[in-house]
UniProtKB/TrEMBL annotation:
GO terms for cellular component: cytosol. The lineage of its organism: Bacteria, Bacillati, Bacillota, Bacilli, Lactobacillales. Pathway: Carbohydrate degradation; glycolysis; D-glyceraldehyde 3-phosphate from glycerone phosphate: step 1/1; Carbohydrate biosynthesis; gluconeogenesis. Homodimer. Keywords: Cytoplasm, Gluconeogenesis, Glycolysis, Isomerase. Belongs to the triosephosphate isomerase family. Its main location: cytoplasm. The active site is at H95 (electrophile), E167 (proton acceptor). This is Triosephosphate isomerase. The keyword Acetylation does not apply. Substrate binds at N9, W10, K11, G173, S213, G234, G235. Its EC number is 5.3.1.1. NCBIfam families: tim.
Amino acid sequence: MRTPIIAGNWKMNMNPEQTAEFVKAVKDKLPASTKVEAVIAAPAVDLPALLENAKGSELKVAAENSYFEDEGAFTGETSPKVLKEMGVDYVIIGHSERRDYFHETDEDINKKAHAIFKNGLLPIICCGESLETREAGKAEEWVEGQVTAALKGLSAEQVSSLVIAYEPIWAIGTGKTASSDQAEEICAVVRKTVAKLYDQTVADKVRIQYGGSVKPANVKELMAKENIDGGLVGGASLVPDSYLQLVNYKD
Ligand SMILES: O=C[C@H](O)COP(=O)(O)O
């Protein structure tokens, strides 16, 4: 019932020319979006090239971040209203890199989620624990806290349509993938948290991605887990061939 969603998160890589080349290489080889939703999240400077080249294809487009106001004196920020006008579908919020390097708080992330919905976009909300938190046996509690804070004040309908990405910080860009059992364990905690805050019907609808060194070699095993509905992929999404293997993991 839940359509799988594989999203590449390019982070601060790629320029508009590389973006255009990438999309040209993948656009005719993507799965139908009813089978697997294929998404690319690109830096704001690449979004026009991404949108232009993805036109008429199955590719969905995400921004890597947006602000919680639509307009005003917020130098350097990206308006969710303008992202919607441009044709963007999703916005990633709360990535651990934004939380760690740019000091984004749970409150900021919640405000961004509200602004994203207000503008008719969908958020991909990231959560995940550090190695220290995991080793202290507090991963579940940590993730439950992040999810609870991020969803504050959102309606059941809104939560049913969004995506939550569980990304253990210790597995990001390190080559260390959480085992499929470890990933499943916390993705199940995410779903249980949604059930506790809303109800089981909402929890059954929300799509949960795993992120952290996902690659063609491990995508099938991860996607076979009951509570994993997709992947948020960094490094392995930068090369067309590898991206295509990920989104076509069902073939
Ligand atoms: O958003 C993506 C994640 O941070 C994972 O990155 P990675 O696949 O390079 O480990």
